Amino acid sequence: MAMAAAGELHFLLVPLVAQGHIIPMVDLARHLAACGGRVTVVTTPVNAARNRAVVEGAQREGLAVDLAEVAFPGPEFGLPEGVENMDQLVDMNMYLGFFKAVWRMEAGLEGYIRSLPRWPDCIVADACNPWTAPVCDRLGIMRLVMHCPSTYFLLAVHCLTKHGMYARVADELELFEIPDFPVRTVANKATFRRFFQWPGVEKEERDVFEAEATADGLLINTFRDIEGIFVDGYEAELGRRTWAIGPTCAARMDADARDGRGNRADVDAGWIVSWLDARPPASVLYISFGSIAHLQPKQAIELARGLEASRRPFIWAIKEVKNATVREWLDGDGYEERVKERGLLVRGWAPQVTILSHPAAGGFLTHCGWNATLEAISHGVPVLTWPNFSDQFSSERLLVDVLGVGVRSGVRMPSFFLPPEAEGVQVTSAGVEKAVAELMDAGADGTARRARAKDLAAKARAAMEEGGSSHADLTDLIHYVSELSKKKRQEREAAYAGKTAHLPSP
Ligand code: UDP
Q1: Within 10 A of 90 (CB to CB), how many other CB atoms are there?
Q2: Is the pLDDT reported for residue 203 higher than 90?
Q3: Rounded to the nearest whole angstrom, what is the distance from the C-alpha of residue 115 to the centroid of ligand 1?
Q4: Which of 184, 389, 390, 441 has the greatest number of beta carbons closer than 10 A?
Q5: Is the pTM value of this prediction over 0.90?
Q6: Burial, 386: exposed, middle or buried (Cβ in 10 Å; 0-12, 13-18, 19+)?
Q7: ipTM metric
Q8: Could you read off the pLDDT of 63-91 as tens digits, one per residue?
Q9: Which atom of ligand 1 is nearest to the CA of 373?
Q10: Residue 116 buriedness (CB in 10 A; 0-12 / 13-18 / 19+)
Q11: Nearest CA to ligand 1 atom 7
Q12: Residue nearest to atom 11 of ligand 1 (CA)
């Protein structure tokens, strides 16, 4: 991205401590720094360590990006020491304590800012970090809110909330039309739930709404070619200035930074690349369910059998090996030995963008997390959609119905709505085999889908280049920050004038 006038601006970015939020924020840090700004990403020690490779990569390119650490008070809320990221939560009971601890980071953030010789010009806080609002209010620093899901999802759940649909419709699976939505869309509650729409975090959700309503502006990780109509709709509904500044993943970075994106991979990335080098173009299916979603054991085994039956080369980032049933089945069944000529299991974290950006990547079986969605789009890889919860079902619709770059696996609802006897299975091995064949098909439909995916990738990259819509939005945002932060600094200086000398110079 070309230089814009960020001048001496110092941005402090505060992501939610979850992979789907930290990764795009660190990407955003690179883009802001490429516009001349200085950027500090504030996170906890475990998350800082995980993201150091990417930040050091940015520094090697001469970008002014840095990390700062604020302690995570997890142990105060019953979490084990070192559990600082949503992908480390192993059962639902940990979620409540996790969000309480996230909210308690407020004092650490404020202390950190007060310790700086010159306070930052602007705080960009994740929408799920509303606890940053009182800090900014007390210190007189402008605050932008960054959203990590699609605007399609944000606007849909906003409309459902505004029109009281969650209260009015009793049955989770009952279908209804989303009122006031720019395109006719039939939905149900099960697949269009808000992020914080579950018992125990009602106060936290109220804080989220309040902090968004009082923000100095909103950033969304998207681009106007795919979501312009929803971005305009959301801006009008919220009455806040809104910038579409993505896809943030469309950034060139060196191999070390790219391979260590979000975490050190549980496999040698160089080896993965040579494995891919030996495969024909667009022949390999990559499978990942992101950092949080886990298939239930029986479903994971059906998927494994379906992949084997598909006879296509594949790389599967399989978190489910943490489950004893899956691990024992894999080891006892000799699965890896049978598929070893063409199938790779990465037991844990895979270098996802390294894989998707390789010419051999021909399909992506994805849970449709918004980052995975943008990464598939940016690299022109058609998708096999397998949503699990939250915004993932709406991303599936966007990919399949609106953009025409996907094939559905057949998942209909979050697995916690299935009857217990289903044991989490929504797609049988035969269903997997059929869907993979359809996605990887070399006939007219598959070829047209691949062409649409390539076309979208070109648009995604163009949006981030000079002259592109996201570049224009980012440039406009920087001008806005430049003006508003100057005003805020003057107000601060006026408020501090005449006060005691031991106060820090803000
Ligand atoms: N990711 C990765 N390797 C993995 C799993 C995930 O690099 O093995 C990255 C992925 O590229 C994406 C992020 O983690 O940037 C996950 O975000 P997403 O919104 O796709 O899903 P979530 O984890 O939030 O459900």
Answers
A1: 11
A2: yes
A3: 33
A4: 390
A5: yes
A6: buried
A7: 1.00
A8: 999 999 999 999 999 999 999 999 999 88
A9: 20
A10: middle
A11: 352
A12: 352
